[in-house]
Description:
This protein is mainly alpha-helical. It has helices spanning 3-11, 15-22, 28-48, 53-70, 83-104, 122-125, 134-145. α2 (15-22) packs across α3 (28-48).
Amino acid sequence: MDSNKADEQDLQTRWTLIRKVREIDCDEKSWNEFYGIYQKLIYGLACRSGLSHHVAQDVVQETMRHVCENIRNFVPEPERGSFKSWLMQMARWRILDQIRKKSSAPTSIHSQGSDDPERTATVERIVDPASLELEALWNEQWQKEL
Length: 146
């Protein structure tokens, strides 16, 4: 098989797997396979959005929980949007939730009045959600992982 054709097939959404996961009586093997493939994408996007390892893991768990609860509502029709876009939107909401939580958290006592010029105030380390190019990051991560 031509190398480009193989790469193209690897990048395609796994529709048979998604159909299995959408079933009410989805088997554990299919769900684990789905999780194994897509958790890397979500985790990578969360980390590249400025979230820590632990918070990125929380984003993966929350996103997968929401996917599990809502995947039966996803309609695999091109005019309604791709699975890739749907999953990215699910992850984006969880990432933005974490960024909002982080930005509303009280400023660290270490950054308030610290005499250490090397320390960055907590508020200055918070990512501005509007500045995130999540779609570009997602597409790059999708290419890398799938």
